[in-house]
Design goal:
Rhopdopsin 7-helix transmembrane proteins, five-stranded antiparallel β-sheet, Alpha-Beta Plaits, 53% helix, Beta-Lactamase, EAL_dom, 30 helices, 4 domains
Length: 800
């Protein structure tokens, strides 16, 4: 039974060694300690076998005793190996020390080689000669080894153990790491005591019991030392973890970003100070609560959760932009990086949010500016195109009608050019305000107004029938009947409106916009201040206009333009005293295009400026040539458009053309229309005075059809009034026309102005005009407009 007890004791170091392996996580250090305790177990097994008399034969005990002798023999190199591992935990300690020649891997290997030699010697009779049976009184019998002539190997091994202990003790006090130094010291101390006790086994009277005590000292001391060191390591680790936790908590709290973590149920398990401040709460208050618990505006939160419900997945990394309401009730925008962190049994969603409210405001401002007109604040062309496409998609799905209206301000360009862009901007703002107020009408809840550029506005009307579109257009016309107060003065401006209907006038945005523009063009041609719904017949007219514009751009280069001259007769002398230069255009594709058709297009496109310069140059050159040929000098009249007159360099250009032609300016008359009265008087008067300074005369053409007023006739430096042909036609049979003509002539005479009657087609009209003291006449009664060649042969040669 004593054998079994000793054998049981032998396994205690082994199991404690396994515990150390688990405790110290199978490091090289723990493996060395396990080896040390395993060898201690072998030593105890070796000793316990000597008590196995009743279990094994003498020969078996002898064999097993020699086999397990490796335990006590290899303790010496293993002790040195453990010291070597501990000391090498501080590599800088041995780096520049002479001790590195002792505590190195080579010496460890030599120690183990020596141990193997001693172990091998133990298998020979010179090492262990025999096992002697010992029978003490009142004690268990056991075998005691008798050593042979090589027993000094064993004694020397003990000596090496002592030397190793001494060397390690010396080095122990030099180790900088206090934990390692303490462990090695107590390990050496307990090992010295244990080994010292174990050496007493050389005396038979001890009955081999010292080795048992020695092994227990080894096992318990090593285990306790490891346990103590483990507790210290764990304590240090926990302390460092607490320090790191405090540090990280401080860093997270100091971070201006919003940091939080939620569990799978959406409850907060971590928040930093910034995030808690966002909700006006303490961090501790938020732990365990959900977004619904901390949000002030519950309704907005439910809406937000509904929107994000399908988007948020705790298992995926997301970087969404989110809207929330802070404790003050203000909307804040956050861009959150959401990272799932897997734990053993659950997943935590870590969120790091950056406040992007200002950026969102800036983005919204950029989007607003990109989609709205800077001057008026109305939606612009870009937004109009987007919303028109959206409206048509909706109308197509629901099968409802819609209307697109193009609104253009009549004569705005002239006002803008004359009174200045600042005035024009103020006028556009006032028009925009009035249009906005117009849309506040309950009947226009499905309408939206846009400014698409210049003086052009559009109106989108969803779920709008043709009758409703007409009603809206009529209301818009009425809207402009009241004047606009600009800088204390009242100004009147009228709209022209083109309307296209979905789906009859087009099923896509491009077609509807094109057709509304075509309808607008027809309003402009018809006299403005009205509206027009698109019809298919308009396309042909619009196409011709586009073709005229296209061909007119190259008319000068192709030399398709020419001048005809219509004679002007002095009523008192019945002599031709002048002529009016009239522009004609013959195009290969279009044929003869009437001036009434192409001149307004030239005005609208700006082509009238180069064409008008060519007309003046040609007329002056032709008149100078006729005078050089000896014909009687005559005055040539040239029509000047308002577009030319508003050109800042027109006076200079006109003076240059006249000078180059060598024609005396007294033989040149510029005809302007009554429309000059609608522009800034100071600007127009100065321009006319500058033209007069060249030496030319000025006539007012088509008098009586526009802005006739005694006030401007007194102001403007006009020499002649030309009565419009509409008053001359039928003057002998219409009393109203007679009265108008007599009044104009009487007024002109009182203002010391000459009078010319246009469109005289009969002898009766001629005689009547002579009777009422008209100065000059022109028309078919005298001659139709003639080419330069025919005018020379038919008129000039007769006058000469």
């Amino acid at each position: 039974m004593f054998f079994l007890f000793l054998l049981f004791v032998a396994f205690i170091p082994f199991f404690l060694g396994l515990s150390i392996l688990v405790m110290v996580k199978r490091s090289m250090f723990s493996k060395a300690l396990f080896l040390f305790l395993l060898l201690a177990s072998f030593w105890q097994i070796d000793v316990s076998l000597l008590y196995a008399i009743h279990y094994f034969s003498r020969e078996t005990i002898d064999f097993l005793f020699r086999l397990f002798r490796i335990g006590p023999i290899m303790l010496t190199p293993t002790l040195f190996f453990i010291a070597y591992i501990i000391i090498n935990e501080e590599p800088s300690f041995l780096q520049n020390s002479k001790w590195r020649y002792i505590m190195n891997k080579t010496n460890v290997i030599l120690f183990y080689l020596w141990g193997m030699i001693v172990y091998i010697v133990g298998w020979s009779d010179q090492g262990i000669f025999t096992l002697t049976l010992m029978e003490p009184e009142e004690a268990y019998r056991f075998y005691f080894p008798s050593y042979g002539s090589l027993s000094w190997f064993f004694h020397f091994n003990v000596l090496l153990f002592m030397i190793s202990i001494m060397v390690c003790f010396i080095l122990c006090f030099r180790i900088p790491n206090s934990s390692l130094r303490s462990f090695l010291f107590y390990f050496l101390f307990s090992t010295t005591i244990g080994y010292g006790l174990g050496v007493l086994n050389i005396f038979p009277n001890t009955r081999l019991l010292p080795s048992t005590i020695s092994v227990m000292v080894f096992a318990l001391s090593v285990f306790l030392l490891c346990y103590k060191m483990h507790l210290k390591v764990v304590g240090d680790m926990n302390r460092r973890l607490d320090e790191q936790k405090d540090f990280l908590s401080t860093v997270i709290d100091l971070n201006p970003n919003y940091i939080y973590a939620k569990d799978e149920e959406g409850r907060y398990c971590l928040v930093n100070r910034s995030y808690a401040d966002l909700y006006g709460m303490r961090k501790e208050e938020m732990i365990g609560k959900t977004d619904s618990d901390v949000q002030v505006n519950k309704v907005r939160e439910r809406e937000r959760v509904t929107v994000l419900k399908d988007k948020e997945d705790i298992t995926k990394r997301l970087i969404p932009e989110e809207e929330l309401i802070n404790h003050e009730g203000n909307v804040r925008w956050l861009q959150t990086s959401k990272v799932p962190i897997k734990r053993r049994e659950s997943t935590v969603l870590l969120g790091v949010s950056t406040d992007i409210t200002e950026r969102k405001k800036h983005e919204d401002e950029i989007i607003y500016q990109a989609n709205h007109d800077v001057l008026t604040g109305l939606p612009n062309r870009r937004l109009f195109n987007e919303q028109l496409t959206t409206l048509l998609q909706k109308a197509s799905r629901k099968h409802i009608p819609a209307a697109v209206m193009f609104i253009d301000l009549d004569r705005f360009k002239y006002i803008n050019d004359t009174l200045g862009h600042d005035f024009g901007d103020l006028l556009l703002r006032e028009v925009s305000k009035r249009l906005k107020r117009f849309l506040t009408n309950d009947r226009l809840i499905n309408s939206q107004v846009y400014r698409i550029g210049g003086d052009e506005f559009t109106l989108l009307n969803s779920n709008c029938t043709k009758q409703e579109a007409i009603r809206i257009a009529e209301l818009l016309i009425q809207l402009f009947e009241e004047g606009f107060i600009i800088e204390g003065q009242e100004f009147f401006i009228t709209p022209s409106i083109g309307v296209s209907m979905y789906p009859e006038d087009g099923k896509d945005a491009k077609a509807l916009m094109k057709n509304a523009d075509t309808a607008l063009y027809h309003v402009k041609e018809r006299g403005k201040n009205s509206y027009q719904l698109f019809s298919n017949e308009m396309n042909q007219h619009f196409y011709r206009k586009m073709l005229i514009e296209k061909e007119l751009r190259n008319a000068l280069e192709r030399k398709e333009l020419c001048l005809n001259y219509q004679p002007l007769v002095n009523v008192k002398t019945n002599q031709v005293t002048g002529m009016e230069a009239l522009l004609r255009w013959n195009n290969k594709m279009l044929g003869d295009v009437p001036p009434a058709e192409f001149i307004p297009i030239a005005e609208e496109t700006g082509l009238i400026i180069p064409i008008g310069e060519w007309v003046l140059q040609t007329a002056c050159k032709q008149n100078a040539q006729w005078q050089c040929m000896g014909y009687s000098p005559m005055k040539v009249s040239v029509n000047i458009s308002m577009r030319q007159l508003l050109d800042k360099s027109f006076v200079k250009k006109a003076a240059t053309v006249i000078e180059l032609s060598t024609l005396d300016p007294v033989y040149i008359d510029f005809e302007v229309t009554e429309s000059v009265a609608m522009y800034e008087p100071g600007v127009i008067i100065k321009k006319l005075v500058d033209l007069k300074s060249i030496g030319i005369t000025l006539s007012m053409d088509d008098f009586g059809t526009g802005y006739s007023s005694l006030s401007y006739l007194k102001k403007y430096p006009i020499d002649t009034l030309k009565i419009d042909r509409s008053f001359i036609r039928g003057v002998t049979s219409h009393e109203d026309n007679k009265a108008i003509v007599r009044s104009i002539i009487s007024m002109a005479k009182h203002l010391h102005l000459n009078v010319t009657a246009e469109g005289v087609e009969g002898k009766e009209e001629y005689r009547y005009l002579s009777k009422v003291n008209c100065d000059y006449v022109q028309g078919y009664a005298i001659s139709r407009p003639l080419t330069a060649e025919k005018f020379e042969h038919s008129i000039l040669k007769k006058v000469r």
